[in-house]
Amino acid sequence: MAKMYGKGKTTVESEEQQKRRWQIELEFVQCLSNPNYLNFLAQRGYFKDQSFINYLKYLQYWKEPDYAKYLMYPMCLYFLDLLQYEHFRREIVNSQCCKFIDDQAILQWQHYTRKRIKLMENAAAAQQQQQQQQQQQLQQSNGGEAATAGEAAATGGMMATANGNGTASAAEAQPLGGSVQRGEPGQSQAVIPQQQQQQINGLATASNIKLELN
């Protein structure tokens, strides 16, 4: 816990003294967010004192995350950076300059919530769009795999159907009572119906009878 009590100790301090110094420095740093307070310090000549300027340099440790998380007015860090420049320390003495900065700070505070909400909505919309694109890509990849599997199944079914038709044709030729004339390998087979076969057989018998009578 000693770290939260600030930096730059030049003398030995008790824990209670460190805590009190940390609280004072925290309050003072946050007062720097008020341009009117800066104008007050400039008019009293504090920004011409080298010891005070060195003190402002020392207070820059509040920009570290371990300390900045305790600040209720983060804008004070912006003015703390500006106070490191001599030109800003001279110009803040001018009341018109102070009023201009004060007006800009008020506008920033008024529109901060609106800007913050808009930024959050834009970030959420971008994240949602990215998720949708990822889902679409995933669906397209899954669809391509399914189409490939369907084509393979359809090809297998056509081959099975062709083999089944060839077997069925040979089997259907037998119940008709016809005869099958077998040719040479690689040639088509002719199927003769039963009536034509009987006529052929009858003609062959008549020819044999005529030959015998002669």
From TrEMBL:
Primary site of residence: nucleus
A molecular function GO annotation: transcription coactivator activity
Spans annotated as Disordered: 128-198
Compositionally biased intervals (Low complexity): 128-173
GO terms under biological process: anterior/posterior axis specification, embryo; regulation of transcription by RNA polymerase II
Single GO cellular component term: mediator complex
Record has Metal-binding as a keyword: no
Pfam families in UniProt: Med31
Alphabetized InterPro entries for the sequence: Med31_sf (IPR038089), Mediator_Med31 (IPR008831)
UniProt KW Kinase keyword: no
Gene3D superfamilies per UniProt: Mediator of RNA polymerase II, submodule Med31 (Soh1)
Swiss-Prot/TrEMBL keywords: Activator, Nucleus, Transcription, Transcription regulation
Localization, UniProt: Nucleus
Domain of life: Eukaryota
PANTHER family membership: MEDIATOR OF RNA POLYMERASE II TRANSCRIPTION SUBUNIT 31
Family: Belongs to the Mediator complex subunit 31 family.
Subunit structure: Component of the Mediator complex.
Role of this protein: Component of the Mediator complex, a coactivator involved in the regulated transcription of nearly all RNA polymerase II-dependent genes. Mediator functions as a bridge to convey information from gene-specific regulatory proteins to the basal RNA polymerase II transcription machinery. Mediator is recruited to promoters by direct interactions with regulatory proteins and serves as a scaffold for the assembly of a functional preinitiation complex with RNA polymerase II and the general transcription factors.
Name of this chain's protein: Mediator of RNA polymerase II transcription subunit 31
